[in-house]
Amino acid sequence: MPALFEALSLRSLQLANRIMVSPMCQYSAVEGCATAWHFAHLLSLAGSGAALLCVEATAVTREARITPGCLGLWDDTCEAALAPIVRLIRTTSPVKLAMQLAHAGRKGSSRPPWEGGRLLAPAEGGWVPEAPSAVAHAPDEAPPRELAREELTRLRAAFAAAARRAARLDFDALEVHMAHGYLLHEFLSPVANRRNDEYGGDLTGRMRFPLEVFDAVRAAFPADRPVGVRVSATDWLDGEESWTPDQTLELARQLQSRGCDWIDVSSGGISPRQKIELKPGYQVPFARALRQATGMPTIAVGLITEPQQAEAIVASGQADMVALARQMLYDPRWPWHAAAALGGVVQGPRQYWRGLPKAAAGIFGDIAFSQR
Questions:
Q1: Domain count, the chain
Q2: CATH number at residue 43
Q3: Contact criterion met (CB below 8 Å) for 19 and 50
Q4: If you write DSSP's letter for every residue of 265-304 in order, what string do you get?
Q5: Range of the domain at 294
Q6: Is 349 helix (H, G, I), strand (E, B) or coil?
Q7: Which of these, 19, 37, 1, lies nearest to 301 by C-alpha position?
Q8: What is the pLDDT of residue 370?
Q9: What is d(CA 250, CA 203) in angstroms, rounded to the nearest whole number?
Q10: Is residue 305 in some structural domain?
Q11: At a CB cut-off of 8 Å and minimum separation 6, what does 266 contact?
Q12: Tell me: the pLDDT tens digits for 5-50?
């Protein structure tokens, strides 16, 4: 069996292969509530053959959204809107479900990307973003509101409450979003965190709140279900004080000691000044370094598009899983095609068995189909 199609266990979660559908923002919710688009989008990806499907970054408060159209899980109405989608996936697909819990921080109150993604003023239907410090993301944007120390208690509780709602919805796993320039990454990086209390300053201070949030989520979610973290391994800002791979390693070690089950290794997002040389697998070395240093399960992301490329990443021990986003949108059956190319096996619905071409005849295992 190719390494990409070997099973993986994370606490009680049994994954049939090493492919994850990355959380992908859809900007299509109404007041945080899932809509018909989410039924179509998630059901399409649930049949991909990936072992794990992670729902998009889900805001833990109304102000935690990136855009007014972002998904949320802050009240009973949001929870009720997601429930039928989860039930439908459970009855039609063996895929396991994760959810990424998030707070946008100073990147909140933005327009959707197809409208330019710029800050949306309160007069235009937005709100004043909240952040570790009153430092704007872009020089031509208004600064966010600095969170008071006592407000951090409210936000920790909001993350924990969302974790409990996700458990009631029967999600198999959670991922805490500490990447891409959003709130928890903002606390970690000196680019955005200029606080002079115990939640700023040196590395220990800057890690304090993200680690407290992880502890709150871990305590609120059932102990037998895994909780992972997505990190930005570097800010890609050479020559200025910023978040670096060495600091990411220390964060990973702290998370490991607290029971973190995986590190999903991305990068960037804290500043428009970042300089990234995009190329296939450009973030994989960060995942490899964390896995080698800590032994923690890691997930590699970023321009992973070809089956042989994904197989090499897992087979060589650079990461335990790969997560695909844009490629999965372009090819929602990518795991099927990867199984055909590599000689792997995926789970596929009986209703589709006869649709396989001869070249892919073995990807669903030993099956028989007769038609009257």
A1: 1
A2: 3.20.20.70
A3: yes
A4: EE---S-TT------TTTTHHHHHHHHHHH---EEE-SS-
A5: 3-360
A6: coil
A7: 19
A8: 60
A9: 9
A10: yes
A11: 179, 180, 230, 231, 232, 233, 283, 301, 302
A12: 999 999 999 999 999 999 999 999 999 999 999 999 999 999 999 9
* Three-state secondary structure call for residue 15: strand
Domain presence at residue 368? no
Active site residues: 182
- Looking at the DSSP assignment, which residues form a beta bridge with residue 110? 119
Of the CA atoms within 13 Å of residue 83, those in its CB half-sphere come to: 9
The verdict on residue 369 lying in a domain is: no
Lowest mean pLDDT among 84-93, 192-201, 360-369: 360-369
The two three-digit tokens of residue 154, written as one number:
């409210």
Give the pLDDT of residue 239: 81
Residues sharing a CB contact under 8 Å with residue 120, sequence separation 6 or more, in sequence order: 67, 68, 109, 110, 111, 126
Find tokens 């805490």 and name the residue. 176
Q: Using CA atoms, how far apart are residues 332 and 21, in angstroms rounded to an integer?
A: 10
Give the tokens for residue 206. Answer: 């800057």
* Structure token pair of residue 167: 């458990």
Q: Is residue 41 part of a domain?
A: yes
Q: Cβ atoms within 10 A of the Cβ of 129, count?
A: 27
In whole angstroms, give the CA distance from residue 171 to residue 48. Answer: 18
> Lowest-pLDDT range, 193-197, 251-255, 276-280?
276-280
Question: 194 — phi, psi (to 5°)?
Answer: -115, 25
